[in-house]
Amino acid sequence: MTLAASHPAGNPSAVMPEEVRLDQRDFAKVAAIVDREARIALQPTKATLVFSRLSRRLREHGLSSFRDYLTLVEADAVERAAMVEALTTNHTHFFRESHHFDHFRESVLGELQERVRAGHSVRLWSAGCSSGEEVYSLIMCMFGTSRSKARWAVDGDVKVLATDLSARVVAAARNAVYSEATVKPIPDAYRRQWLREEGADFAVVDDARRMVTARELNLFGEWPMRQQYDVIFCRNVMIYFDDAATSELISRFSRLLRPGGYLYIGHSERLIGPGAEGLVPCGQTIYRKEGSQ
Ligand SMILES: C[S@@+](CC[C@H](N)C(=O)[O-])C[C@H]1O[C@@H](n2cnc3c(N)ncnc32)[C@H](O)[C@@H]1O
Fold it and tell me: Ligand 1, residues 33, 36, 165: which to mutate, most atoms within 8 A of Cβ?
């Protein structure tokens, strides 16, 4: 059975030879590799997406069958990473699921300010940050609407880690330059203060960029952090994983959070497994680790 036999709409013959097919065996192989490398669970309903995204990679390598492409992928770690990256979904936007940012401002910010005033460091992590909109939304919430309000964060030991599997989006998060359409959801008071025009685009100000460490990181690999975190955002990432992978990740997040720290997850995600036990709901898809410190 052929899962995705048709070419993307448009001008197929100019792009791919007519006979290129992604059959069930090819799809199963792609799914097994993506599961092994990133724990992403590809359902057969994604066959058309796999076909169209990987067709580009076949073209780049001058290959005319998925079988040949998969032989290359098995032999070449760089192409394997490129294939996994091509199959990630990086959709995001500024102030996505805005109730999380309301909660952060109203219930968490004061605590973080207190911690900095008491001489502690503050650490936040956007895990699966995509192109950085989530990261800078958080920082704008910390900065508020004026330079004086932002001083505690700019001058304090406050750092934000932004990680993703995809090198392309990590580079965009580090670059922090966004189109006019992309910055639209940012409230005006923040836009005026924390963005500057750069040609037709908008760059996030240096004070915000300096707080961010943007790194490639597979959530199922080694984590380099040695310190506990005050806040972790991992939103709209676990939807791509199966229950075993999600449960493993929740346990790791729970261990990394300091007692009293917060975990924010996406609207269609849920906490499962033993790691969820010490995480108490304190808002819509917001959890607080038991204890205080
Ligand atoms: C839909 S985006 C979510 C972006 C942002 N958190 C938000 O909610 O708007 C999901 C991101 O998770 C990343 N991702 C998927 N699997 C991953 C893994 N195993 N390790 C790290 N990042 C992963 C993808 O590359 C993608 O950028």
Answer: 165
